[in-house]
Design a protein that fits this description.
The strands form 2 sheets. A 7-stranded parallel sheet has the order 3-2-1-4-5-6-7, with helices on both faces. A 5-stranded parallel sheet has the order 9-8-10-11-12, sandwiched between helices. By secondary structure, it is α/β, with parallel strands linked by helices.
Length: about 350
């Protein structure tokens, strides 16, 4: 079987990595197409994958529209002589139309309900849309739900073991407080007209947390001079080890909030819009807290409340145990699902 994975975001490298390795071990051919966004290509290089970059991220709705045409055109040109048996992508916008023209199935994995524009031009052309069971909304007969989160494709205990040596690289011991923050660029199609922390709020957050321990920032956007000393300076592929040992995560990335949760780290997600999975992680497991960007003072206060709790990580370790007992190893499920889907179609 020939599988094409289109990877358009850094988190998608992590999502597909173990599945790609497993499919190749089973004798399947896997081709990787990519988009130059943030550290996507850096991660692919760090993991040693060969790929073809089909486009570079553009800004604004017009820029994103032009990039879509460029990426789809190159994908079709790359694939028409020897079409893969199946196209795979998170979000799916770059693959579904080329797959339809080539009469090949396109399996879309997604978890973001409010991406109205991209979902509208993607879902009708997909062969299957796979989402976490907590996805808010019904996509119809092609909708496949599974009991997990994207992040459990690479952070499930079957695939990931935190390495304390990463702490040594940044001069910390495992028992020293560590706070990880994430600021996004707000340039994705589903981020239009949205925002997170103000600049003053970012600085106030870091100043408040550094009284209790080490603060590390990972940011899509350029940081002002005041915050540059806090920027993460280790390999991008090692961020999950830091999250596993962190005392707290607070930031504008829903993905990183969910990553923290499945690793047993308290998470505060600052955004004007929640997600089905972060809502579940808050309402059912009390491990993540979504707070509006209009209430950044509340977010900072919640962070300070949590960091002063005794036995915080011990409590979250027990919550994580309960969460994992109800969730699946998403990679193992995905590998089997794709194989069975292609065989049936």
């Amino acid at each position: 079987m020939h599988i094409l994975c289109d990877i358009s975001h850094p988190a998608h490298v992590h999502f597909f990595r173990n599945a790609i390795d497993t499919w190749r071990t089973r004798g399947h051919k896997v081709t990787i197409a990519a988009r130059d966004k943030d550290i996507t290509l850096t991660l692919l290089d760090e993991y040693g994958y060969e790929y073809e970059c089909l486009s570079q991220m553009r800004r604004g709705l017009i820029g994103l529209g032009l990039e879509l045409l460029e990426h789809e055109g190159r994908l079709y040109k790359q694939s028409w002589r020897n079409p893969p048996d199946v196209f795979l992508e998170i979000g799916g916008t770059f693959i579904v139309h080329a797959a339809k023209l080539l009469r090949r199935p396109a399996i879309v994995f997604y978890d973001t309900e409010h991406a109205f524009v991209s979902n509208t031009i993607t879902y009708p052309f997909a062969s299957a849309v796979c989402t976490p069971a907590c996805y808010q909304g019904d996509i119809g007969p092609k909708h496949v739900r599974y009991e997990g989160y994207h992040e459990l494709a690479y952070l499930h205990p079957n695939w990931f073991k935190p390495n304390p040596e990463v702490l040594t690289e940044i001069g910390l011991k495992p028992d020293e407080p560590l706070f990880v923050t994430r600021f996004v660029g707000w340039e994705a199609s589903h981020d239009v007209a949205q925002k997170g922390f103000s600049l003053a709020g970012k600085i106030k957050l870091v100043r408040a947390l550094e009284r209790y321990g080490r603060v590390i920032i990972t940011s899509e956007a350029d940081l002002p001079a005041e915050l540059q000393p806090y920027q993460m300076r280790i390999a991008a592929s090692k961020i999950h080890h830091l999250l596993a040992f962190a005392t707290l995560y607070i930031g504008e990335s829903a993905t990183m909030a969910s990553e923290s949760v499945v690793l047993g780290t308290p998470a505060i997600f600052v955004s004007p819009v929640g997600r089905g999975y972060t809502d579940e992680q808050e309402n059912e497991y009390d491990m993540c807290y979504t707070i509006s960007d209009k209430e950044e003072e509340k977010a900072i206060a919640k962070a300070l409340e949590l960091v002063q709790c005794q036995n915080l990580k011990t409590e979250w370790a027990e919550k994580r145990r309960q969460l994992l007992a109800k969730k699946i190893d998403v990679t193992t499920w995905m590998v089997d699902f794709v194989e069975e889907f292609v065989e049936a179609h």
